[in-house]
Amino acid sequence: MKRNLFFFVFALITQLTFAQNQRSTYNFNPDWKVYVGDAVGAEATDFDDKTWKGITLPYAWNEDEAFKKSIENLSTGIAWYRKRFSIPIGSADKKVFLEFEGVRQAGEFYLNGKFIGRHENGITAFGFDISNLIVEGKENVIAVKTDNSWTYREKATNSTYQWNDKNFNANYGGISKNVKLHITGKIFQTLGLYSTLKTTGNYIYAKDFDITGKSAVIVSESEIRNETNEAKNITYEVEIKDAYGKIIKIFSAAPQSLAAGETAILKAESLVGNLNFWSWGYGYLYTINSKLKVNGDSVDELITKTGFRKTGFKNGMVYLNDRVLMMKGYAQRSSNEWPAIGLSVPAWLSDYSNQLMVESNANLVRWMHITPWKQDIESCDRVGLLQAMPAGDSEKDVTGTRWDQRKAVMTDAIIYNRNNPSIVFYECGNESISAEHMIEMKDIRNRYDPNGGRAIGSREMLDIDAAEYGGEMLYINKSAGKPLWATEYSRDEGLRKYWDEFSPPYHINGAGPKYKDADASDYNRNQDSHAIEDVIRWNEYYQERPGTGTRVSSGGVNIIFSDSNTHHRGEENYRRSGEVDAMRIPKDGYFAHKVMWDGWVDARKTGIHIMGHWNYKAGTKKNVYVVASGDKVALFLNGKPLGFGEKSNGFLYTFKNVNYKPGSLKAISYDVKGLKLAETNLKTVGKPVGLKLTKMQNPTGFKADGADLALLQIEVVDAAGNRCPIALNMINFSVIGEAEWRGGIAQGPDNYILAKSLPVEGGVNRVLIRSTTTAGKIKVTATADGLKPATITLETLPVMVKTGLSSEFPAEGLKSNLSKGPTPIGASYQISRKTVKISSASAGANNDKAKLSYDDNELSDWVNDGTLGTGWITYTLEKESTITQVELKLNGFRTKIYPLRILVDGKEVFKGNSKNSLGYFTAICTPTKGKTVTIQLMGSGKDNNANIGVEVNGKKLDDGVERAETKLKGGLSIIEAEIYTNP
Using one digit for the tens of pLDDT, what is the confidence trace for 138-153? Predict the structure, then answer.
């Protein structure tokens, strides 16, 4: 008995000793206090902060202004954050680190009254080694002085930051992101916090993929530091667990001696089979436990969540797991913000928002201008949403200190986020950068992420070879080499409140104020018009998708996903370009995208959506719009056929002047053979009788941590519980229990931010409530005049916090979205036409430049001398072919119409006018066999300058290459010419 007790005690002591060598990571968000203003002496340990506001991070001190104020009016200045905490007993001889995911704009940090560092770029994560200042067994105090001034200047250089910009970077000040505390032994794996700790952390990637065989070589490497007083023989071991916690592989590298004070990279790799590859809408993640062992005993364990996927960027296309994926998605502000909260939402709400993108069949989010916070990046891993990750910039290239700042942010962002599989693009600038700068950025990628399968590039990089992808804004590019996708292809604005001109509040499309004394119709749309424009824009890209020739478009992203507290042009003080509103309630454009984007490249034929609702005044006559991916669509009203819709823009079917009658409006789509593909319907809803409350919350439970949020949806419903789509009732809310009201948003005074009375719009709205740090029940009641009230009860769960530390994390327990399943086998597109290769060209003028019209470079062109007689160009084909289409990118594609004649071996196959477009005009030819194709100008081109538009900075939208010759009556200029035959 005594012997057994001895061995038990010995084993316990040994276990405790080993445990003390292990890494412990704590949630450092709880128990902070904040004071808005410059509190003199607040860095001191004994400073009296009893009257300061108690908060849980992440928390922007000016959160009350989110969506209440226009971006340029968001409050700025000094705010102090303080926290008291203690570290666990036994940590005195350990390494202790603080990890901040970011502050805005800058922070000065003090521990126990001593200055420990400063961080100023307002974007990236950073950390501090506080091992020598921390006190064990006593209370420690951290104090942070933040400054979110729009004109903040870096202390060392006196330079402002390019991305601290009042157009797009909503200024939510203070410690608005998560914080962690790490405790390790003296032999440890470093953190990937380069700018402050000068360490690179771990790096996990896969190589030698066998997609069909479901295997790859997994590589894990970590930067290791030995801060003991003697050399140690260290074994690096890697354990891989699947999504269900089952160990599927353990492998290690040969032991390596590390001298006292030495830092080295240890690396282990192994072939791993039966892998589930991360994919679009399939956020399959593995847990990698990288261990350091000395004499067989584990002294440090680092846990990383990651996934494995194969990418390719070639032939003008993007490949994911060996399958072509056309880019379809959104250019979203990196703040990804919510009313009265800003960006500082709980992790589950990040998942909710980001997964909505996937559910609209988006596969890519292009974060704009600055790197998103880690929470959103990890969220995209879980929901299966590819990411384009910028570093930091504004609207143009820069030099000197500002360029050095951009390189530093890119370095930090790559090191910190290189284990996140959803990142597939690194963006070096919102606009073009020089070739030299592109090479510098590429060198950073090659140094810190050479094996991650990520393309690096920027917008407007068409002629810069170092860029591995590119694309433009608001027009189409194609390529046979690096993929080109539009970085923002539609930016019109419209409130969700406005269905159409026949529905309350009867918004005629385009009605609203001017923008900079110019027509702003595009920025004051209603839902019908907004969604129709989405269809028109996307279809042009879709027509140039993979499978349509050698040169293709790789798609694009629509700006933006959710209404944003950033630069705006319409009647509200915030951006309303979202396909969902600020509370993530979908607009009709959301459902239009869901139809058009359903597929990896080619659209599946089963998507269908009727725009709007079916509740109108008697006698209303209006167009009914259906978005469908079939070949024809029929409409039925109360069972009576109304015929087939007029098809336009690939996906849009218009039924003109439909007489409203209450009942059921049904749309059915068919294929070319008349086979039914899909159907949907709208029904007339009864009179409003009551309210309905629905809760959305953390799937692991509503946490009493002072930061968790619940999203409550309020609807006006009829007797059958159906939402009344034209209701605009004012709703009054009351809250009883442990919760803080944050409210919602609606059109009206101060956008109803924080108001407890606000209207529904289109019969629905949403509000947010935030937990306190006391667990308990919460009762929310909604009332409205003349309607039956609704009540809902929520309950928050206790969260264990001890001496300022918690072992529960915001994202803990959140599951991956696996709804779309693994990457399908087989081709993702059908070949609809084949390119006939051009071998040479001759022209009526500038013959030596004729080859520029087919060189796969959209920044070069051929132009004649401006006289009608020289307005021709003849292409000699590589081989005789039956020509069915000729596609041209003409200078002035947006504004100029050319009368053209096309001949094949001298036979006329097309005669007519080109059409204005986002880039390309396709001439459908009488199928004719021949070896030469001639494009001939038949008369003076016609300008339509009313369509040109301007960018934010006043620059005219791109319209091709500026040529004086095209201003003349006989001017003809071709940027790219492509000739096709049937497949």
Answer: 999 999 999 999 999 9
Quote the pLDDT of residue 21: 57
Kindly tell me the burial class for residue 968, based on how many C-beta atoms sit within 10 Å of its own C-beta (0-12, 13-18, 19 or more). Answer: middle
Q: What is the pLDDT of residue 516?
A: 83
Strand pairing category for 386-390 and 730-737: unpaired
Torsional class of 134: left (φ above 0), alpha (ψ -120 to 50), beta (otherwise): beta
CA 896/CA 969 separation, integer angstroms = 12
- CA–CA gap between residue 141 and residue 922 (Å, rounded): 68
- If you count them, how many residues does the chain have? 983
User: Rounded CA gap, 644 and 716, in Å?
Assistant: 34
Q: Which residue type, as a one-letter code, is found at position 292? A: L
Would you say residue 871 has pLDDT above 70? yes
In tens, the pLDDT along 722-753 reads 999 999 999 999 999 999 999 999 999 999 99
Q: Are 81 and 33 in contact (CB under 8 A)?
A: yes
Find the DSSP H helices in 392-526: 400-417, 435-448
Q: Whole-number mean pLDDT of the chain?
A: 95
**What's the angle, vertex CA 227, arms to CA 225 and CA 228, rounded to 5?**
130
Contacts of residue 158, Cβ cutoff 8 Å, sequence gap at least 6: none
The pTM of the whole model exceeds 0.90:
yes
pLDDT category of residue 372 using cuts at 50, 70 and 90: very high
Q: How far is CA 747 from its chain centroid?
A: 26
Query: Cβ neighbours of residue 16 under 8 Å, at least 6 residues apart?
Result: none
Among 722, 811, 812, 735, CA closest to 771: 735
User: CA-to-CA distance for 849 and 646, rounded, in angstroms?
Assistant: 43
Asked whether residue 943 carries a pLDDT value surpassing 90, the answer given is no
- Residue-wise DSSP of 575-590: B---SB-TT--B-HHH
CA 100 – CA 102 distance, rounded (Å)? 5
The rounded distance, in Å, linking the Cα atoms of 81 and 32 is 7
How far is the C-alpha of 528 from the C-alpha of 532, rounded, in Å?
A: 6
Closest C-alpha among 68, 113, 69, 83 to residue 174: 83
How far CA 935 is from CA of 462, 856, 910, 924, in Å, comes to: 25, 18, 10, 13
pLDDT confidence of 228, banded at 50, 70, 90?
very high
| Cα–Cα distance measured from residue 301 to residue 288, given in angstroms and rounded to the nearest whole number | 10
DSSP helix/strand/coil, 85: strand
Share of the chain above pLDDT 70, in %: 97
pLDDT in tens, 494-549: 999 999 999 999 999 999 888 888 888 999 999 999 999 999 999 999 999 999 99
Whether 870 and 965 have beta carbons less than 8 Å apart is answered as no
Encode 34-73: b = buried (16+ Cβ within 10 Å), e = exposed. bbbeebeebbebebebeebeebbbbbbbbbbbbbbbbbee
Token pair in block for residue 673: 């053979």
Tokens of 625: 């719009």
Strand partners, 798: 704
How far is 163 from 167, CA to CA, in rounded Å? 10
Sheet hosting strand 640-644, strand order edge to edge: 640-644, 632-637, 664-670, 676-683
Rounded to whole angstroms, the Cα distance separating 835 from 410 reads 39
Asked if the peptide bond before residue 699 counts as cis, ω within 30 degrees of 0, the response is: no
2's torsion region: left (phi>0), alpha (psi -120 to 50) or beta? alpha
Contact 314, 819 (CB under 8 A): no
Give the Å distances, CA to CA, from 813 to 700, 701, 810.
6, 10, 9
Are 471 and 488 in contact, with CB atoms under 8 Å apart? no
Radius of gyration (Cα) for the chain, nearest Å? Answer: 30
Distance CA 289, CA 303 (A): 5
For residues 922 and 970, the answer to whether their CB atoms sit within 8 Å is: no
